[in-house]
Queue: 2 jobs
Job 1
Amino acid sequence: MDRRNPANGLLTGRYALASVDDADRAVAGAREAFDSGVWSTMASIDRGRILLAWAELIRLNKERLAQIEAAEVGKPIRIARGDIQGAIDLTQYAGTLAFDIHGDAFDHVHGTDLGVVLKEPIGVVAAIVPWNFPAIIYSQKVPFALAAGCTVVVKPAEMTPGTALEMSRLALDAGVPPGVLNIITGEGSVVGQRLAEHPDIDLLSFTGSTKVSHDIAAAASTTHKHLSFELGGKGATIVFDDANLDDAVDGVLFGVYFNQGETCIAGTRLLVQDTIADAFVAQLASRAAELRVGDVFDDETDIGAMISESHLKKVLEYVESGTAAGATLVTGGTRVNVEGIEDGLFVAPTILDHVAAASRVFQEEIFGPVLVTARFTTDEEAISLANDTVYGLANGVWTKNVDRAIRFGRALRSGTVWINTSNDGAPQLPFGGYKESGNAREKGRAGLEEYLVSKTFHIHVGPRTPFYSTRAAVPTESA
Ligand code: TAP
């Protein structure tokens, strides 16, 4: 299959479309490699060293990988470079975690018995990755699974397999033994579906849409594989009149327009206190209109292209549905034609104001550069609006009142809450969702634990206390 850069229509890559048989061969290879112990029984410190060497090879190839990422996703090169740096950081972090894999000991079980809880690799992992952050999301899964001692089959998104293929090749160069890391390119409905059904996969780690996660859960239902889901979001950013408003404007813009809004953790719903709402929205609108849309290889570009023509249409239809439901279009809302680029799928940074909480644009994931705005008066109203969604991935609050910040941090139903920042994270901080945003925790120590399973040794110490009392033999009649 051919992949064209959605920001200029040029061919960026030609990839194999794997079949179900290819998927079966990849799983068989991963199974054989796992069962052979070549990786799973290697000293974890040695696995860690290989992962660190891998991170170094990614670093040496950083610019090349960033160019691939920018071209395939249609994202600005500045963001793509940050993504590859993120992949390096995650791989290094996973490598250091491998140095410290250990179980637990219980030395006072029943007084003198000893309990030892081992941590073992869960087995063969399937990793299914979406198109918006191909390198980062690959790196939230694969190095952690490898650190744990698992073997892996990766299925990147059909449209963006380039960096996953290149990084997997570098893993081989770094010393990951053949068969341990396998990669198949192709359609989710074919090879992804096969991985979900496959009885030889022990854990399937999926990042993507909530809808596809339900299909995967159904396909996996005849097996007992572990399912780990990182799904969609509809993040709220709450801005109070006591916030540093200049910082908040920048944070809201970054939260919603980063990666042209194709971000699961995008702060796509702005909830702004009514005392400052008009001025705040006006300031956002003038800054949004200044953002540079277009050539993704220009260091100055802020907003890249939508991933596909059909996705661009979907985003613009959402904007129409918002205005039809009574919202005010403040800025954007149209396709952008960039001078000198014929085939760019660009959408202008968009703001809808006075959006009703029940409307589709407030409830559904748009996955484009569209901010929807609602106003609130009281803290309770803000919490209730923010939590009025099936999703629960990340929310943010801007305030200088520490009591309020912590109260909101506790009350918001999401795996991440940002306080006076947006779209932030670090390899050591766990990440994941509440509700329909999924059940996984990636990154941090939790991101390693996903791929480990515990086994208990119960060791009896000392003489046995009989459970059945020894009775004198009952004499028989003949005796
Ligand atoms: P999806 O359409 O769900 O696709 C994700 C991956 O699943 C792709 O590799 C896709 O393959 C594959 N797939 C599709 N149908 C499948 C099936 N029946 N069985 C198994 N695999 C299947 O998502 P997307 O459009 O690529 O990405 C956007 C979504 O991902 C958004 O909802 C976004 O919020 C979510 N997301 C979440 C996070 C986190 S960390 N929570 C991060 C990024 C994105 P194809 O490419 O061939 O369709």
Note: The mean pLDDT is 97.
Job 2
Amino acid sequence: MDPLYTSYPLSIDNSLTGEKEAFVPVHEGNVGMYVCGPTVYSDVHLGNARTFTSFDMIFRYLKHLGYKVRYVRNITDAGHLENDADTGEDKIAKKARLEQIEPMEIVQRYTVDFHKVMDALNAFPPSIEPTATGHISEQIEMVQSILDKGWAYESNGSVYFDVTAYNANGGAYGILSGRKMDELQAGTRALDGQEEKRNPSDFALWKKASPSHIMRWPSPWSVGFPGWHLECSAMSTKYLGETFDIHGGGMDLKFPHHECEIAQNNACSEQKGARYWMHTNMLTLNGKRMSKSTGNTILPRELFSGDSPLLDKGFSPSVVRFFMMQAHYSSVLDFSNDALLAAEKGHDRLLSALEKLDTLDASKESTIGLEAWIDKCYQAMSDNFNTPILIAHLFEAIKWISSAESAIALSSADLSIFKAALHSFAFDLLGLRKKSLDAGDAHKDALDKAMSLVIELRAQARLNKDWGTADLIRDQLQEAGIKLKDGAEGTNYSL
Ligand code: AMP
Ligand code: ZN
């Protein structure tokens, strides 16, 4: 049988060209995808999780279409400096200094946290998860080869990419972000180690370490460390080749990070690296980008437990995933308690319909246009991974299920196809989880039931002015790590 991608050819919005393009991989049937991973110096917030969940959905769909996918997502554990600048303290080393522990303890702690979050959100691990510190020699080789081509220069033990020389020789720095050279010169921060650079828009490939900079490695130029943009060029080339299919990340990485990556790859091998660039849009909170540096964040763990002043209650990871999938990956998504409550309703309706479907009989013949429905679900996904349209089609199917009394208007053969298709869309592609399959959810369900009983008993005690019992319940729960929240719509709890 032909793979599905021949029946439903994929098109992708390519941020490099600004066009929606037919997706043609370098090697037929195979896809190489690189996604910039987290800088592991603090807990990943829900915005980071959104980006990685979007690429998980993309990974799932590519595999579902029949491609053999190599998905590389790195861990940035060195070289990423404060303010994303070319000078300053390493983000990881700074956190380690503040906590008086080893930088690698910081890296370990937040890598583990990241994996836990992505696992809870039912994201598959990538095929390869390389670290910057594990690829120092590849990065040094890349710097050397850019120097050899004449598109970089050494200055005081550091090496900078020479943007002007690169562009004068046919390079296209600015191709991704659309920025022009004069804007680039004007827009560069004064603090970026300018005195060592020939031009303000040049960027660091290798930095000489100051005496206090503890994350350092020997190199031909100095004992130092790689520039932040270099690791992704080095690791994508190593694992996916000089030309590969998809490169992804959040929109905020377009400039300078991805612009610099393209220049580095191109300077090294005269290949542009990735052919399709995909950028996910931001998760916002109170209308502003969720961001570690401003502290405008909510953590996935707070969302699952409900332990946040922003929330009335906790939400299961599957609901959170549904909330994310209801928006297109390229649209802004605003986080709020109400938006999560609405997503929970939709999610639960979908899962209940799937449960009900298992109890329905088939009819003699099909009167529902099943084939056309399946077709449009795939069309939506193959049209630049349009999950909100897929979900709209799933709700159409829910109507067929809820309007059925004991039999659905499908023949028995079609009913099996319908069940398989619905399962595959909801679980394999959107990555939702069945309640009964999720041990965490089963425990949460039991706890929810026990807690609503306790909350009810406390409400009764208060009605009877039995303050002793009411306080005892609240205090004992507090001791067990459960907080009660009295709100306008009754009492909720969080862990
Ligand atoms: P960082 O650890 O800061 O390098 O970020 C890891 C990933 O999360 C990058 O791809 C960012 O683009 C992405 N990201 C950061 N903030 C947000 C946000 N508010 N919404 C969606 N993605 C984000
Ligand atoms: Zn990167």
Note: The chain has three domains: 4-280, 284-429, 441-494.
